[in-house]
Amino acid sequence: MNPIRVLLVDDHAILREGIRYLLSASGEVQVIGEAQDGVEALEMVEKLKPDAVLMDIAMPRMNGIEATKELKKRHPDLPVLILSMYDSEEYVLPILRAGAAGYVLKRAAAQELVSALKAVTSGQVILHPDVAKTVMENLQGQGGGTPSPSAETRSAGAAHAQLEQLTEREREVLTLIAHGLTNQQIAEKLFISIKTVQAHRANLMEKLDLHDAVELTKFAIKTGLLSLDEI
Question: What residue ranges carry the coiled-coil annotation (predicted)?
Fold first, then answer.
């Protein structure tokens, strides 16, 4: 399997060097370019066409939130994985709303970062457990921030009513998506084909009126399919 081609975006050169070394050592990821801020990242994505962007948030000129918004406008299918030292809602929620496919903390192990890149390039969402906790607290109204649009428009009662409309198999797939499994992993776990998993995923999004894995994960947390102890 070819390595995942990644553009690394961080304003600290020493940190970029360390991350490049760790990812290259895995043999599964190739850092094809580096940018020190969002402006450079936008330029280099056009030039290098990476499989994924590994993005910091706090950067000069254009931060990770602004850069992610712009990248998703220009390249909706390009996954952006956030690598940040912050796990507070003031960083987590805006970047997820901007379209980031995942959020990993800088204290994570190298293999966690490789696994996260593999997940987001497979169309999955991946959140560090501390980040998932922040999202959950926000959904429960304990975070003090502004809820996401889906959380605002869907009460817990309405969400559970929608959950009742799902088949047993769809609930299984939804739960595994919320745990960050890829389509391949779900297919292997449930002994079904990848196409069947993709069909279940599409049905889930249509039935629940949700549009990506992040929203599916939020729904799973809200309805209790994914508990705090499991993240």
Answer: none
